[in-house]
Amino acid sequence: FRSGGRFYNGLESNASKDLRSRILINGNPTVEKDFSCMHINMLYNKENQSLKEDAYNKLSGGDPKLRQLFKLIGLVSINSENLKKCFSALRYEIYDNGLKSYFEDLTDNSISRYYDQWVQAHPVIAKYLSSDVGIKLQYQDSRIAAGIINYFTEKGVPVLVVHDSFIIEKKYESELVDKMKS
Predict the structure, then answer these.
(1) What's 26-64 look like in SS3?
(2) I want to staple 40 with a disulfide (CB 3.0 to 4.6 A). Which of 55, 68, 123, 139 is the partner?
(3) Is the pLDDT of residue 159 over 90?
(4) Which residues partner with 18 through β-bridges?
(5) How far, in Å, CA of 169 to CA of 113, rounded?
(6) Which pairs from 48-52 meet CB under 8 Å and 24+ separation?
(7) Strands of 28-34's sheet, edge to edge?
């Protein structure tokens, strides 16, 4: 009961971002807001530091596919219990997400070049990589999401949740952002 627990499985969870952008609530346009680099930020906060910029853009140089690769490395690594399992999961994710073109092959050596770049860019949180801390972070982010859901539910305002992102009527956008910040 202190692990996992993320909010998903509604229709909105399985819809593409483009499709989610077309959702209406009470017949009104909606917005989707999310916590940027949430788990990475949470790890920095555990070390009493703050992330100065987007964790993935820092490494990708503006290339969206490379950003996707570094995001996978960051998230898969904090959700793996050891480096061997991390690289095995990354191999699958790289192939499944169409990122194989960044690699000559998908050997551990080839993957470790990008993994090592991640570690060098984020030494403050390197000790959390391949530590399986992700499941605990999911529990913490589910508690944050529950607080936001409860706040709007008490006001009678519908809010949809996709992990760490929230879909709400556009007229409540600034209130949602304020609640997320708090």
Answers:
(1) CCEEEEEEECCCHHHHHHHHHCCCCCCCCCCHHHHCCCH
(2) 55
(3) yes
(4) none
(5) 43
(6) 49/124
(7) 24-25, 28-34, 165-169, 159-162
Q: Are 45 and 182 in contact (CB under 8 A)?
A: no
- Structure confidence by residue, pLDDT tens digits, 119-138: 999 999 999 999 999 888 98
Q: How far apart are CA 182 and CA 176, in angstroms?
A: 10
* Tokens found for residue 137: 């972070």
Residue 175 has pLDDT above 70, yes or no: yes
Q: How far is residue 152's CA from residue 172's CA, in Å, rounded to a whole number?
A: 10
Range of weakest confidence among 16-30, 35-49, 104-118, 145-159: 16-30
Q: Which two tokens stand for residue 104?
A: 């000559």
What is the rounded distance in angstroms from the CA atom of residue 63 to the CA atom of residue 26? 38
Provide the pLDDT for residue 4: 61
> What DSSP line would sit under 122-169, residue for residue?
-GGGGGGTTTTTHHHHHHHHHHHHHHHHHHHHHTT--EEEETTEEEEE
What predicted TM-score, i.e. pTM, was given to this entire model?
Answer: 0.83
